[in-house]
Design goal:
By secondary structure, this protein is an alpha/beta fold. Helices cover 36% and strands 25% of the residues.
Length: 180
């Protein structure tokens, strides 16, 4: 993967990817258009195409989703906007009214090179906590409790989260894809 570049302006995502890979990862910060689409897959494909066109070298981009099962998968790729506008507590309050607090965290890595764009995905199921807990991580880590655990990602160490996260699963899938 030495010729690939991870296109992200998010320092936390870059650090987490390097920790998962166990080595440095080239990085570029670009102002990519954020397609408003129903799936993280569509957003990642669009961003990968745009980044490849701008850099003319193999690229990796990421898009994450937060799919509340009681809301039919909403907000999915729109989680960033919900978090920015209402805060994490608003997501917890919305889950209070649902029959089930289940959520699927997704990480979709869009890659694009001369062969064209494609995606790999990592998913992990869990629950929305009653209130934000923990100060580790970023984004919605403080409200995501992975199945089989009683702590949020925000209460876990970076290594503990990375051992099971949706991001870990996506980067592992990418390593397998690029090994072919």
């Amino acid at each position: 993967m030495t010729s690939w570049v991870f296109v992200t302006g998010n320092d936390s995502k870059h650090r987490e990817a390097e920790a998962i890979l166990g080595r440095p990862l080239d990085r570029a910060v670009l102002d990519l258009p954020e397609l408003q689409a129903a799936t993280t897959r569509d957003v990642a494909l669009h961003k990968a195409r745009a980044a490849f066109a701008m850099l003319d070298r193999p690229v990796i981009v990421e898009d994450a989703g937060f799919e509340l099962t009681g809301l039919g998968g909403f907000p999915g790729p729109f989680i960033k906007y919900w978090e920015q506008l209402g805060g994490l507590i608003s997501i917890c309050r919305a889950a209070d009214g649902l029959a089930h607090r289940g959520v699927i965290a997704t990480c979709v890595l869009g890659i694009c090179d001369q062969e064209g764009p494609r995606v790999v995905e990592g998913r992990i199921e869990g629950m929305v906590s009653a209130a934000p807990r923990g100060s580790n991580g970023f984004g919605w880590d403080a409200i995501f409790i992975p199945d089989g655990h009683d702590r949020t990602f925000g209460e876990m160490s970076a290594d503990e989260k990375a051992s099971m996260s949706h991001r870990r699963r996506a980067w592992d899938a990418l390593a397998a894809e690029l090994a072919h």
